[in-house]
Amino acid sequence: MNAGAIRLTLDSPSSHYQAGERLSGRYMVDGSQPWAMRAVELSVLWYTSGKGDEDMAVHHFERHVSETGRPLDLRVPRRFSTVLAASPLSYDGEIVKVCWCVRLRLYLPQGQEALTEVPFRLGNVPGVNQSEMAEAEH
Amino acid sequence: MTSLPDQFATSLAPSRRDNPFATCWTKPGALAFRFADGQSLERLVAKLAAQNWQGQILGPHGSGKSTLLAALLPALSAAGRPIREIELSHRSRRLLCDLVAPNHGEIIVVDGFEQLNWLTRLQLKRRCRRAGAGMLVTAHVPMGLPALIQLSPSRRLIEQLVADVCAQIPSGITSDDVAASHASHGSNVREIFFDLYDRHERLRRKIRTAVSNPA
User: Do A49 and B197 touch (CB under 8 A)?
Assistant: First the structure.
């Protein structure tokens, strides 16, 4: 499956949310015929990224499975919605970043998978800027 | 190595794709092991088999021993050899090895064999020999097992690794940056990646500051 066929979008054009705010969006898969898929999972999660070990936690999870006689057809957009947590807030640090995203995973036949994710920002914590980095070096 | 795209500099939401040298992209198993000319995974598996499944991967800090191990283990499993990895933690190194009872035909794998004291290493080797089990270890210096491969990444290999990393996520890191990092850290790829991580971060923020505050 071409990753370009998967469309995951957030309703907010800025992709910037506050703690406790509702995050919503939709996902679909382009195609003139339905892609054969066993299941689809959508997660809203946070993870750390940077120089050290990584942490992650799932805030919202939903899974939809193809059933006999009722195959999954994602040509029709599906919506998702969740109220965001109070923490951790997004942080663009020098050594570690706290990142939030919506991740969509498609389980295709023969054990194949397709994955796409859309990052978003939670909160207003400022990241480290260039002058702070220069100060820290000296 | 390509320059940072404009939208990269203005992205509001932090993401693992902000830095191609973040651990998630460079840790053992995340990056494909690059062999020097004449070497390959298949050749190493054949050599290990010829050595009765006994071997040590040698190399200095950050030379790719754990990365090679991560690549080798699935190949050994595919070759029909059961694998048992012994994970060494600070508190229970000796205890873990005392509990190991190797089975015939399996390969005991220890990443960082020299973290064990010489008596524990000797006992483990003896147990494996008696049970007809193989041993595959990584170490900085020879540990009394047949050599499988000695790692010493060249500057050319390091440049290729950096290109591999940057192929997925663009970076403004230049050949001069890589040369400077290699001059500082030699063949320690881990430290080079850490250094390039910092260089990429500085560059990314410099671009973002320039975009946010145009002259």
Answer: no
Dihedral of CA atoms B42, B45, B50, B53 in degrees, nearest 10, equals -170
pLDDT digits (tens, 9 = 90+) for A1-14: 555 589 999 999 99
Q: What is the pTM of this model?
A: 0.82
d(CA B149, CA B56): 7
Reported as type and span, the H/E element at residue A18 is: none
pLDDT in tens, B75-130: 999 999 999 998 876 655 555 666 778 999 999 999 999 999 898 899 999 999 99
Q: What's the rounded Cα separation, in Å, for the pair B162 and B178?
A: 8
Q: What is the pLDDT of residues B13-69, one digit of tens each?
A: 999 999 999 999 999 889 889 998 789 999 999 999 999 999 999 999 999 999 999
Shortest Cα distance, chain A CAs vs residue B16, angstroms: 6
Output Rg (C-alpha) for chain B, integer angstroms.
Answer: 21
- Are B13 and A99 inside 8 Å of each other by CB? yes
Report the alpha-carbon angle B21-A126-A7, nearest 5.
Answer: 60
